[in-house]
Amino acid sequence: MKIVLYIVLGLLALCLLLLLAAVIRTLLTPARRSEWTPRRDPEREAAYAEKLARMVRCETVSAKGEIRREKFLAFHGVLAELFPLVHEKLEKTEIDGALLYRWPGASAERPLVLMAHQDVVPAEGEWTHGHFSGDIDEEGRIWGRGSADDKSSLMTIFQAVEELLADGFIPPQDVYISSSNTEEVGGDGCPKLVAELEKRGVKPYLVNDEGGAVTADPMAGIHGHFAMLGILEKGQGNLLISARSRGGHSSYPAKNSPIARLSRFVCDIEKHNPMRSVITPQLKTMLENMGAYGPFHFRLLFGNLWLFGPLLIRLMPSLSPQAAALLRTTVAFTMQSGSDGCNVLPQEATLTLNLRYMPHQNREESNAIIRKLAQKYDLEVKIIDEYDACEPVRTDTPAFRLLTDTVREVFPGLPLVPYVMTGGTDARHYQRICGTCVRFCPIVYGPDQMKGMHGLNEYVDAYSLPGAVDYYQALIRNNK
Ligand SMILES: [Zn+2]
Q: Please, what are the domains in the chain?
C-alpha cells in the first residue's frame, strides 16, 4: 500500500516540477508584440483603388461545368486597358480563359510564378454596396465581390510589373503571372497552365499564391498584424453515401428506413469524431510562433507543447470549428436527398460528405474509417472525387527564405507565421513541378475581409494596396 502511495506522490511531484519548469520558462521568455502598421500613401492608394474598382465591376463569376470564356475575355480587355505595358512587353498565353504571362529575365534558371485567380464566387443577399459596384467610399474601401478574393492580389501583381516595366527594369530571373479562371469551382484552369509550363520544361523556383495574408488579429487574444504563410494545404474528397430499401407507403413505415440509417450514421460521426487529432510539425510551428504574441496563458500553453500538447489536442476542438480543423481530417455533411413525395418512403436516400484530409490521415485511411462506419449502418459509399493533402512546404530552403526575407524587407516589424490552411487554393496544382509553393497574399485581411470573402459585403482597404505592389516588386528584384 505504502509503495503505491509513494508512486502517486512521486508522480504528483514530477507533474508539479514539470509545470513549474514550464511556468519559469514562460516567465523568462519576454512577451512579443507585432509592431507593423500600414504606411499610408494617399496618392498611390487612390490610383490603385480606381484600377481595382474597374476589375471588380467586371463580373467574373465561375460556375461548375460551364466556364463561359467570353466573360473572361471581356475581363482580359479590362486588364489590357489598365496595364498596357504588361500587355505590350510580356508573352501572353490564354487557355480557355486562364492566363499565363512570361516576362523574360536575365536568366531562366530560377523562374518565379506569381499567382492570383480571376474568377469569383456568386454574390447573393443584401449588401450595403452593390454586388459588383466597385464603389470606393470615403474611407478608401473598395466594395464588391472579388475585391478581397482575389482581384486585389491580381491587380497588385499586374501593377508591380507595370511599374517595373515603366522603369525599364529587366528581372534577374524569368517571371510568370499565372491566373486561373476556375479556382473557385476547383476547375481545370490552373492544371492547364501547369501543363503548359510542364510542356515548356519550366520548373518554378518559387510559386506565390493566395492563402495566407497580412492578417489582422488572426486569433482571439492575439492582436496586431501577422504575415500568415500557408505551408500546408489539406486534401479534399466528396463521398456519396446511400441507403436503400424497398420503399413503400408512408402510412405503415417500417423501422430502419434509409433516412433513419443515414441519420444514425451522421449522429455517430458528430458525437464520436472518428478522425485522429495530431499536432503536426507545421501546426506546432504555427502555435509556437503565434502564441509568443498572446497573453500569458497562450505563451504558457503554446510555448510548452512538449507538456501541454495532449491537453491542447483535447481543448482545441471545443474552442472553435476552425481550431478543430487544424488538428484532424474533417467531415462535413453537405447534401441530402430522399423520396420525391411527402408520402413516399424513399427506395434510396443519399447524403454527401465533404472531407478535408490531413497528411497524417490521408484519403485512404480516412475513407476506410468512413466505409467501416457506413457498413455498420448498412450504407454504401461511392467516391465522387478526391485528392490527398499536399506535401508541406519546407521552410529551410533558400526559396522559402527568399520569400520571408522579402516580407521582412517590405513589412518591417511584421511577425511571420507559417500556418496550416483549412481551405484550398490553386497552388496545389503547382506542387507537381515546384517544391516551394507558398500561400501568401500581401494584402491586409482583417475580420471584415474574412467574413466578406464568399460572404456578404466583401471589401478591401485601399491602404493595403501599395504594400502589396511593393512586395511583388521586391520579390521579383530579390530573386537574383
Ligand atoms: Zn481565392
A: 42-233+390-478 (3.40.630.10), 236-387 (3.30.70.360)
